Amino acid sequence: MKIECITVWHLDLPLSKPYWLSGGRLKFERLDSTIVRLDTDAGIHGWGEGCPWGSTYLPAFGRGIRAGLEELAPTILGSDPRCLDVLNRKMDVALPGHPYVKAAIDIACWDILGKAADLPVCDLLGGRETGDVLTNSSISTGTPDEMIATVAAARAKGYSVHSCKVGGADIAGDIARIEAVMGSLVSGERITFDVNRAWTPGVAIEVMNAVAGFAPSWFEQPCETMDQCIHVRRNTRQPIMLDECLHSMDDHVRAHGAGACEGVKVKPNRLGGLTKARQVRDFGLSVGWQMHVEDVGGTVLADTAAIHLAHSTPEANRLASWIGHDHLVDDIAPGQGSRNQAGRTAAPDLPGLGVEPDVQALGEPVARYT
Ligand code: MG
Fold first, then answer.
1. Residue 20 CA, ligand 1 centroid: distance in Å
2. What is this structure's pTM?
3. Distance in Å, CA 23 to ligand 1 centroid
4. Which contacts (CB < 8 Å, 24+ apart) does range 333-336 have?
């Protein structure tokens, strides 16, 4: 089987309301997403998505994906989409680094592989585990009262796991936010405070130790670099989850060797697609990490790809997954894919990813390579 055509769409996706993180340093109102369709000489096609959640969240940006696809197109065309590791090695030779550029292509190839095998992608990623996948809310930074209200609204939608955005130079403000949200939780709810790298190590140690008397909660990516997070790890007690400082398998091996964390976020669009995210997931299983398996952002297409990986991850190692498309105004595949249903979701049973975007909703392609 050979890839004969790459079609690329650019989507400008407004968020249903502005989203603040990293102590208000970073604000998002719309997302730049790239949708890719691969057509093969066997008549099977696959869909993938690249969405880096704006330009300020990761070393990645939407136009970079489309420029990178133009660079990679000669390498991708003529390749067998079912030979995922071979194709990933070829892409890494043709364009070293830039994992976010390759994610949409890799995800579309998994869609094709699933359709060719007549199996859902989660079965090809190791097999569907029992039970649904828990979903978690994402609570934008705000005043303590605003955050309590947002958690309550998420609770009303069925979420029992919350990811609250905190972080900034205002130490007393962060302690107040954390104490207020912790005090508002009901029995059975769990929480992560995601700092999105906003704290210096001294601030992280001060805040985390100040709130250590509350019920257990995770703290995510407290500081910018892995070394800074390792320093925090050695001077605090709460479990730490790493996210933005992890880009390669090397990073994960180093984090484990340094005892930097008890868990990681596994995001196909940060790591370069499902092939590399699966490798990281399996490493995480071998070292006993707990993982949030989800994507960086985007439509139901990116979310569903990540949920296939989540659903093939054992429950003991699988924390909740965020459903990013819940924050969007537009829907490119109504009724399809992995959706939040009262705090839970599942990978579709259909062959491949199980999402067929509405081409009318995508508009005109911005590029086609043959
Ligand atoms: Mg995070």
1. 13
2. 0.96
3. 13
4. 333/299, 333/300, 333/301, 333/357, 333/358, 333/361, 334/358, 336/300, 336/304
Task: Note the CATH architecture for domain 123-345.
Answer: Alpha-Beta Barrel (3.20)
pLDDT digits (tens, 9 = 90+) for 193-248: 999 999 999 999 999 999 998 777 999 999 999 999 999 999 999 999 999 999 99
**Residue 90 · residue 79 · CB < 8 Å:** yes
Place of tokens 């936010």: 177
**Ligand 1 center to 114 CA (angstroms):** 29
Domain 3-118+357-369 listed as CATH 3.30.390.10: yes
Residue 258 CB partners (closer than 8 Å, separation 6+): 226, 230
> What residues are annotated to the active site?
165, 267
- CA separation for the pair 74, 64 (Å, rounded): 17
How does strand 263-266 pair with strand 240-242? parallel
| pLDDT tens-place string over residues 34-90 | 999 999 999 999 999 999 999 999 999 999 999 999 999 999 999 999 999 999 999
For the chain, domain boundaries? 3-118+357-369, 123-345
Q: How far is the CA of 269 from the centre of ligand 1 (A)?
A: 13
